[in-house]
Amino acid sequence: MPFAFLAVSLFFSFIWFPAVSHSQNNNAARYLAELQQQARTQKLSDQRSWHLLLKYNKKRFGGMESEADGMAFFNSPAGKTDPESELAATLASFFVPLAEIANGEEHPQCNFPARFKWLNEQLAFDPARLQIQECDRLGRWLEILDPVGVTLVFASYFLNNPASMFGHTLMRIDSRRTGGDNNLINYGVNYAAIPDTENAFLYALKGLIGSFEGRFAIFPYYTKVQEYNNWESRDLWEYELKFTEDQLHMMLLHLWELGGTYFDYYYFQENCSYHVLSLLEIANPDLRLKDEFFFSVIPADTVKVVMAQDQLVKQIVYRPAVLNQMNHHRARMDSGERQLLHAIIKGEVTIESARFTGLPTRTQALLLDAYMDYLQYQSMQQVSDQEVKIPRSLLSARSRLRVASDQNEEVTLFSSPPHLGHGTDRVRLGVGHNDREPFLELAYRPAYHDLMAKDVGYDKHSEIIFLDFKLRYYFESERVRLDRANILSITSLNPYDPLFGKTSWRGSLEIDTLRDRDCHYCNSLKAFYGRGLSYRPDFFSPLLLFSFIDLKAELSGHLQRDYRLGGDLEAGAYYDISENLRVKIAGSYHVFIVGERKRFFTTHFESRYALSQNLDVRLELNRFDHNHEGIFSVNYYF
């Protein structure tokens, strides 16, 4: 190893310094050799900070490989797989004379300021022997950001976009210039895939196999608030973090280095949350945030990991979506005031009419605040190049009321902090009995949340189930069978709102047991998609009613003609008896009209009692045509 390192050092000395080595300044080459010898002695290429700077985290065939995939990130041609050669090349690059840098390009000291800073701390560069370069662009960038803090931001779940179904994390650089009351004009930092297709299937496939480039971007934070809060109507949870000024400086220098490279984007692993955690580790290498993850890195789980660090989070701020700002006002109204708001929105009542002007001043202010929130949301939904503004007459009417919005009023939480949610992985152990025999059930899924689980930290109106595998051992027949493999199942219940015409929807792709047939636990490949309606009496009612009409397709060699096509009509309800006890009851009528023709009923009853955040017990009673079964299970989340 010492001989190899010395050989690499001499190689780079002659490659990088043809002008220096044969000039009066050939002391630079000797000083480089001294630095490289010192680096070898101190084993800098093995230190965690160096690996973090270069993101060496993948182990393949006993070696290491950087996660960065753009070669502009490296100084050595072998830098992606050889941290020692990258260290030697990096040191050599710092000695390149400024005159040899092409016009419009940055000196390596300015391209890789985080590496320069860290190596200077380790090796104590002698400015008399290594010329320190001025980095004007970097200096102006840091001056604009003027960081005093950093905030981790979680954008809640958005089922209309596959990339945002599990939520999204980004960061905000809090500036000394703006202060704590003007966070919207700070800058945000985001890592995301750069898609090259609008095809949903290709988008999902490329995201799974890492075929998109993932890049960091920096932007005014208010643009993301506009996108998430207003356009997509997603709540934001902001976690203000505690770092020293030097740690923040190091993180930003590394972010500067990342601006010229890309990473292969993997939807479940090297995603937005994974690389955000990498930035936090750069700021403080003692943090080992990514070590908590193996198969998947889900945004809500990364927030939990950050919250678990001692004194890392200073405070948490809830930024409600514009629709939830409106709903906050609506929740304070009585039924008559809500009806009047609907009449104003429909144009049946104007703000100049006696029916409105005769109201108490505070009631008028409440109605106008809700109406302006509604208009703001609707303007964001319009596809137009021109900004749609709230009418001046409405703004004037509100200003004349002289009733200020109470900033100290307690905000209504329409979502809950993601760090309070149960773990996204789940294992399940159950015992049950059907019409023939008893069985033992074992199940595992890596993600994410179902509607029967406690919804603290999750969207209480939706579920996402991914790769849920259930195996059963039947005692009398002594057989192990795959009961179900739920590849992906999504349900979005949008309770009826007279102001918005959103319907509920659901879809699933799974391998399931043909439960309406006596074929000794045979399986079928099943897919369905449905639309429906749901209803909740008020925002926080314990009762949720739902109904769906689904289109279904099943394939199996145990069916007549090997398939059947049809659909079903289902109706049911969820009811929260207490904070920990939830019940569900549902019934459906299935009709298959192509392939194997059949009609039958199913009924389903399920109850869940939560023993803790990550542990619950459930009782299920099911009827499939003429077959019955009951299951008692224990579910643990982690």
Automatic annotation (TrEMBL):
Protein name: Uncharacterized protein
Residue ranges of the TM segments: none
Species annotation: Nitrosomonas nitrosa
Pfam family, one: Lnb_N
InterPro entries: DUF7840, DUF7843, Lnb_N
Top-level taxon in the UniProt lineage: Bacteria
Domain DUF7843, chain residue ranges per copy: 42-122
Secretion signal span: 1-21
Domain DUF7840: 417-629
Domain Lnb N-terminal periplasmic: 140-308
This protein's UniProt keywords: Signal
